[in-house]
Write a structure and sequence with these properties.
single chain, alpha+beta, six-stranded mixed sheet, five-stranded antiparallel sheet, 9 helices, 18 strands
Length: about 350
Amino acid sequence: MAVLSVRNLHKSWGETQVVRDIGFETREGEFIALLGPSGCGKSTTLRLIAGLEQADSGSVHLGGRDITLLPSSKRGVSMVFQSYALFPHLDVRDNITFGLSVRGESRKAQAGKLARVASLLGLEKLLDRRPSQLSGGQQQRVALGRALIAEAPVCLLDEPLSNLDAKLRAEMRAEIRALQQRLGITMIFVTHDQTEAMSMADRVALLKDGRIAQFDTPEALYARPASTFVAGFVGQPPMNIVTVADLGAQAAHLPPGLLVGLRPEEITLAETGLPGRVRAVEYFGADSILSVEIGGPVLHLRMQGRPATGKGAAVHLAWPEGALHLFDPETGLRAASAPAHSRSTLHPA
């Protein structure tokens, strides 16, 4: 049985539909990421699950129990907010145990739970400090501790790392994932950062305009995107999307009128293949991104190190068989794969 079941949630603000028919289920101990651009409805979806907003229609079930109409305090979920929402006049100890105090738990019970959570998060030496005396990472740990001490089966996190610098975000990604796996709790993590979603989650729900564009493993989102939107959102840089005609003779075997997707990592420079001219080279140390014009459109390819080829150079591009992704130009949805008998001609021997 699913730990959390979200069924056909709808939410509008006036005439604006923010969440449209959102539905998914989580398994026990699973890490789910709600990913998408700003305004796609991911934070609203989280707030509907938490009971901070009321859905226009649809339902939320936790452990088989319908919690749709229950207040947030009765739902059995905990939440970490983007702003951390710490009380500035309370020390770390009282911030973490605040919810337990409100529910009337004894001081002895609070102390036992606090000791466990503080140990898990490395906060033992910070319990007497106020939030203003903490770094961003420490504040994030306190907010997480306040959620974990509730011992709820589901923990909701609304972009909790967005206020941290890049180095600390990377560290906290690893810490949160390790903590979630150690505790075996179900986490739902909202983010606009695909690196966070792809590196942390067991499954990712990618949202667009209030709907789920694809709900799948990170591997499936990358390898078999369900639409041009997914293909263009996942990947750094994202998948190249061109027409069959743009690839000329290299795609003569494909049905005309389709859109073709190529991952930058799949394209290589070769002696023969699709002709083009380098328009830009971005060097990042471990790898480089080349922008190659192929008559009109530009293909981006990613290669290791610094290429010997520079701006303005004439090049040929090739890719391995099976690298092409086909999409319907009208709907943007994934179409059939490239015919196997002709794909091998796309890569030079």
